[in-house]
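Structure tokens please, single chain.
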Amino acid sequence: MKIERPYIIAGIALLAVVLLAGSYWFMHYRNAPPQIMASPDEGGEALQISTPQSPREIQVYVAGAVVSPGVYHLMEGDRVHQALAMAVPLPTADLRYLGMARELIDGESILVPELEADGAVPGESPPIKAPSNKININRATTAELDAGLEGIGPGLAQQIVDYRNTNGPFKKIEDIKKVGGIGDKRFEAIKDRISVY
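Here you go.
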């Protein structure tokens, strides 16, 4: 049977359309990224993909030879030098053995010691006599305690500094009586000259 020319042309055109559509489908789906479907767990619920957690907050106590002793809020992974930067070390602070690059631990205490027994930085002049305002027993150097408080010599002043470096800052002025050598009589003589803030 002879097929007429118009039918032949129509058949060829139809075949071309089918081939083009097939090529488009093959190229499109071959390059598409595979889709990962979360399979349900035994309980019938879809598995949750875990995401990295943000660093948690930690608290660190800084005391000793710093301007602002207290508890500081930082983030897990922060270093010792970041906590000290917040507390602001005094010029007399000895930072050589504190491990400045060490990671902080939640709840730890950092006690900053002073450079010398008299609280002076090598090469600098000794501190001037304390002025008439009250002396902060949480911040004063041994030289300032000796100069500004009646009956407190260099040895007792050093004991005050050692006590707060070991036990943290004084919470009230009466706490200074916990230092060996300071009883009720000596406290009465200096209580109007000292503060903890």
